Amino acid sequence: MGVHRTDQPRTDQTRTDQPRTDHRRQSGVGDPADFGRLILAATPLGNPGDASIRLRDALATAGVIAAEDTRRARRLASDLGVELAGRVISLHDSAEAGRVEVLLSSLRDGIDVLVISDAGMPLVSDPGYRVVRACLDAGIEVAVLPGPSAVLAALVVSGLAVDRFCFEGFLPRKPGDRRRHLQSLAVEQRTMVFFESPHRISAALADMVEVFGPDRPAVLARELTKTHEEVIRGNLAYVRQRADAGLRGEITVVIAGGEDQAVASDPGEWVARVEAAEAAGIDRRAAIGDVAREVGVPRRDVYDAVVAARRGLP
């Protein structure tokens, strides 16, 4: 379906939350009222039917479209039957720092800039933060067009608690860094949401089993809203087993939070956590420091507990 466009600029008296349709206005002498807006828009995870009307309008009217992948942006516009009238530029991770001044210049000239990622909401494990920060520092308006989110989609379909959760994004690539990061979450009581790539998912789940235990409830959501959508529910041991058989596509992992345990007053628990970290390949010194931070006690107390356990002292 075609998108109706108008060349009439909005007036000060009729300001709306819709993207402006005039690509450029007469800019004054650095007057923020003459600046364009930075618009952050969520895009479909895989099904074009999930695109909002506001996203369609923004694609058709923005003077500049900053996209994580320009080819995907054009493909999305084609799927939606929208003609892109604005300039399309790349805004991937390695290019973002160099794009900030370019986008600020357009915004100061009164041009609206639309920021989109390949799927879901920009900035959430995707580029855009530097641009947003620079705009706010420069007094430029930042607006959002809500929509699809892989984090929330996986969370609500998981069947795990949703009243309190934390988003951890992608885990570190290096095994040691990944284990240390997971160890820092060993006593996290909120439901945890992670992104992971297909070629690292098996190793990541193996580390999760080691740190959180094989019986911790977990859900792996793959290719949400797409033809081959799959949701694997069970405990970490089962989810890891399924992943070891090979998985493709966009992956989100949701893991139940831990039980409330008074670990801060139990030296035996500190020792157990240090030993688990050592078994995962973390050296003892780093493990002691990690456990001390997790349970909120002095590093020396954890060290003394480990030494006493090794000597067989009560």
Outline the structure in words.
The chain is α/β, with parallel strands linked by helices. It has three domains: 12-148, Tetrapyrrole methylase, N-terminal domain (Cobalt-precorrin-4 Transmethylase, domain 1, 3-Layer(aba) Sandwich); 151-255, Methyltransferase, Cobalt-precorrin-4 Transmethylase, Domain 2 (2-Layer Sandwich); 263-311. Helices cover 38% and strands 16% of the residues. Strand 6, helix 6 (175-183) and strand 7 form a beta-alpha-beta unit. Residues 1-17 and 23-29 have low confidence and may be disordered.
Could you give the topology of this structure?
Blueprint: E1 38-41, H1 53-61, E2 64-67, H2 70-80, E3 87-90, H3 96-108, E4 113-116, H4 129-137, E5 142-145, H5 150-158, E6 165-170, H6 175-183, E7 191-196, H7 201-212, E8 217-222, E9 230-235, H8 236-244, E10 251-255, H9 267-279, H10 284-295, H11 299-311
Parallel strand pairs: 1-4, 1-5, 2-3, 2-4, 6-7
Antiparallel strand pairs: 7-10, 8-9, 8-10
Instruction: Indicate the low-confidence ranges by residue numbers.
Output: 1-17, 23-29
The top-level CATH class of the largest domain is: Alpha Beta
Structural class: alpha/beta
As laid out across the biggest beta sheet, the strand order is: 3-2-4-1-5
Helix content: 25-40%
Q: Let me know the CATH homologous superfamily of the largest domain.
A: Tetrapyrrole methylase, N-terminal domain
Number of helices: 11
**What is the percentage of strand-forming residues?**
15-25%
What distance separates the N and C termini? 75 Å
Major sheet size, sense and barrel closure: 5 strands, parallel
Element order, helices and strands?
A: EHEHEHEHEHEHEHEEHEHHH
